[in-house]
From TrEMBL:
<feature type="transmembrane region" description="Helical">
    <location>
        <begin position="151"/>
        <end position="173"/>
    </location>
</feature>
<feature type="transmembrane region" description="Helical">
    <location>
        <begin position="237"/>
        <end position="266"/>
    </location>
</feature>
<keyword id="KW-1133">Transmembrane helix</keyword>
<feature type="transmembrane region" description="Helical">
    <location>
        <begin position="209"/>
        <end position="231"/>
    </location>
</feature>
<feature type="transmembrane region" description="Helical">
    <location>
        <begin position="12"/>
        <end position="29"/>
    </location>
</feature>
<protein>
    <submittedName>
        <fullName>AI-2E family transporter</fullName>
    </submittedName>
</protein>
<feature type="transmembrane region" description="Helical">
    <location>
        <begin position="35"/>
        <end position="52"/>
    </location>
</feature>
<feature type="transmembrane region" description="Helical">
    <location>
        <begin position="278"/>
        <end position="296"/>
    </location>
</feature>
<keyword id="KW-0813">Transport</keyword>
<dbReference type="InterPro" id="IPR002549">
    <property type="entry name" value="AI-2E-like"/>
</dbReference>
<dbReference type="Pfam" id="PF01594">
    <property type="entry name" value="AI-2E_transport"/>
</dbReference>
<comment type="similarity">
    <text>Belongs to the autoinducer-2 exporter (AI-2E) (TC 2.A.86) family.</text>
</comment>
<keyword id="KW-0812">Transmembrane</keyword>
<feature type="transmembrane region" description="Helical">
    <location>
        <begin position="316"/>
        <end position="342"/>
    </location>
</feature>
<keyword id="KW-1003">Cell membrane</keyword>
<keyword id="KW-0472">Membrane</keyword>
<feature type="transmembrane region" description="Helical">
    <location>
        <begin position="64"/>
        <end position="90"/>
    </location>
</feature>
Amino acid sequence: MITSKTISNGILKALITTVLVGLILFFFYKIQSVLIYLVVSFILTLIGNPILDFFKKRLKFNHLFATIATLFIFILIIFGFIMMFIPLILSQGENLSLLNTTEIEKNIVQLINQITVFLDNHQIDSAQVLKEANITSKINFNFIPNFLNTILGTISSLSVGLGSVLFITFFFLKDRLIFILGAKKLIQNNHEDQILNSLEKINYLLSRYFIGLLLQLFIVFLLYLIVLFIFGVPNALVIAFLCAVLNIIPYIGPLIASFLAAILTMLSNLGSDFQSEILPTTIYVLIGFWIVQIIDNNLSQPIIFSKSVSSHPLEIFLVILIAGFLFGILGMIVAVPLYTIIKVIGKEFFPENKIIQLLTKDI
C-alpha cells in the first residue's frame, strides 16, 4: 500500500539524485579542460601505440626507451607543425583579411558588385535579383574569421596545456599494462576475458583509424594545395588548410570546402578583372577540387577507412549517413569510431548472432 511516507521518501530520493547528477555535471563542466587533455592524450596514445610497438619489436628498444622515442616523435611533429604552418597561416590569413570581419564584408560587397556588373553586361536578370535580395545584409561575415580563429585558438590553447597532454600521454603509453591489470580487478571474472579482448581490439582498430584519418587529411591537403598552385591562386596554403580541415566532416565537409574555396579564390584575386581572370580561375579551382573529392571519396577515403577499421566502404557510408540523419554533423564525425566499438563488443559478447557474424567477419 502506498503511503504518504513512501511518496515523500520517493520524492526525497529523486531530489537527492537530481542534485547529485547536477553536482557531477557541474564538476565535469569546471574540469572540462582536464577532460579535453585526457581525450587528446587518449587519441595520441592510440596513434602512438603502433609506433611504440615498432620501436619495441623492430628496433628492440625496451619499453621505457620506446615510450620516450614515441613521445619525442610527437614533440617533433607538433613543434614542426607550429613552426612551419601557424606563422604561414596567420600571415596568409591577414593577407586574405580572414582575421578582420569588416574587411571581409568590404571585399565581399566589392565582389558582389563585380558579379552584378558582369551579369548586367550579359543581359541576365539575376543581377537585379542580387540587388533586391540585398545579400550582403544577410550573410554572416563572422563565419570565416570565427572559423579560422577557432582553429588557431584551439591550437594556441592546446599549446598552453601541451605539457600536460604530453605528460599524460607518456604515462598512458608507459603504463598501459598497469591500466589493463587495474581494469582486471574491477571486472567480474565471468566477463573478464571478453572485456579485455574488446579493449585490446578497440585500441588496435581505433589506433589504425586515427592514423588513417590523419593520412587522409594530409593527402587531401596536398592535393588541394597542388590544384591551387597550378592555377596560381594567392594564399594557397591557408585555403588548402581550411578546406582540408573541413574534410573531417564526411561527405558534407567537401561540399562546404568547395563553396569556401570558390569564395576565397575570388577574394584572393579581387583586384583582377572578373570576366577574364576571377571567374575562369574560380571555375578551374572548383573543377580541380571536385576531382580531388572524387579521388578522395572513391579511392583514398574508402581504402584507408575500410582497411583501418576492417569494414566495407558501403558499410561505412551507410553508417555515416544514418548517423548524420540522427545526430547531425557531430554524429557523422564520431560515427565510424563508435560503430567500430559497437562491432567489437558485439563480436565478443554475441558471437553466435548471424548478423554480428556477417558484420564482424574481418575483425
